[in-house]
């Protein structure tokens, strides 16, 4: 076996790899060189520098595993790797503590004005009166996203005698209670927290999650910290809030553009900025290197790695179009997750027709859960860990069968339930994945791209008003599907649009007369 180490990792990880394979270390390899030589390797270890594009993956004739020494896999084309049968793994647990500790460091730096006091003192000044800070004791921590890192930050803030409230629409209240936080909505967190820390992924839903409207309702002395992903905070709005002293301070480790060249934020004294180093400690880098070395070694020894991010989809001779049905499962899960109101507590997956006759349908159910959970969590959810992640979040999963296929060779129905809502979608494969029913209404939807879903009362003018609003926002509608129970009754509208719908437009649509709710999704 032969492994390429394409980015710098700790030597201990390289030593472990050398126990199971021939190791080549080339941390300056160019994309063109990688494309020309990747065919020689059975495995590759990378960090964030090396980009495993579809073109490079296509040239990887022997490659069995791509190992990312860290959490994010934005630099790996997962779909291309999956189709090629290449396993992708990462080291998600390696940086949780490190990022949480960096968050605490930024929190203290802003609260006690450590950064600007350091600059002042080193310049020969002694300006004690300018640097009066605040205590963390007795303050309220507001956490946006209670995943691995968010929960670590909470536990550390408890040692500072801070209270904690959190916004995580996908976390059951009983689980939050066990973590020591009070679960609430986003506005309540923004209005009541003295310190706000962000730990969610960057998605269409979280892009500019914190902008002008949100800064307006924060406390005057509030401190906001982002060690998650750039773009979650609208940096132009943050600049105005800091410049006009609408909030007490901010700290960023991530930016909308990296490096943040010519950013006006760098002119301000009430913000602390670090260069995306929250995960950069000796311990974290060593831990990540050891984890991925063990993952590669396990695969080469015939064992199953722990942190698989994809499940290579091989041809299933027992079931026609199994790969396309796996795609359908993931799309159905994502469709439900982004459409339903509230925290999902129950998921039912019902199989009909030929697929219901398979003796083991677990891979399909796992893929549905992967589709449901991935849009809402910061750490990647895979078919391997999806059931465990669902269980940890209090989601009950049931599987059922119907012998008949509703006129189709096979179909899959997914039902999601929250305390206040229920949403279902049914689909099949007709040359490609299709959604046939939504909440019991017949439709014909190709689940991909930017989409808009509205549940509304079927009265004249509603469809036209929605179209007009989108047109005014320069949003072009590609495909429209309408399903209804009776004339003048309840109905569902599903649109495929050319571009993402801005939040302000979505809000206007959801507030239209006769529209019960409206959401945008990306598949």
Task: Provide a descriptive summary of the structure in words.
By secondary structure, this protein is α/β, with parallel strands linked by helices. It has 17 helices and 22 strands. A seven-stranded parallel beta sheet has the order 8-7-6-9-10-11-12, with helices on both faces. It has a six-stranded mixed beta sheet with strand order 14-13-15-16-17-18, covered by helices on one side. Strands 2-1-3-4-5 form a five-stranded parallel beta sheet, with helices on both faces. Helix 5 crosses helix 7, helix 13 runs parallel beside helix 14 and helix 14 packs across helix 15. The radius of gyration is 25 Å and the shape is globular. 43% of the residues are buried.
Topology (SSEs and partners):
Elements: E1 2-5, H1 11-18, E2 22-25, H2 31-37, E3 43-46, H3 54-58, E4 65-68, H4 78-84, E5 87-89, H5 96-111, H6 114-122, E6 140-144, H7 148-158, E7 163-167, H8 173-179, E8 182-183, H9 186-192, E9 195-198, H10 212-217, E10 223-226, H11 235-243, E11 249-252, E12 271-273, H12 282-300, H13 322-339, E13 346-353, H14 362-373, H15 386-392, E14 396-402, E15 410-417, E16 422-430, E17 432-438, E18 441-445, E19 450-457, H16 462-472, E20 477-484, E21 490-497, H17 503-510, E22 515-522
Parallel strand pairs: 1-2, 1-3, 3-4, 4-5, 6-7, 6-9, 7-8, 9-10, 10-11, 11-12, 13-14
Antiparallel strand pairs: 13-15, 15-16, 16-17, 17-18, 19-21, 19-22, 20-21
Helix pairs in contact: 1-12, 5-7, 13-14, 14-15
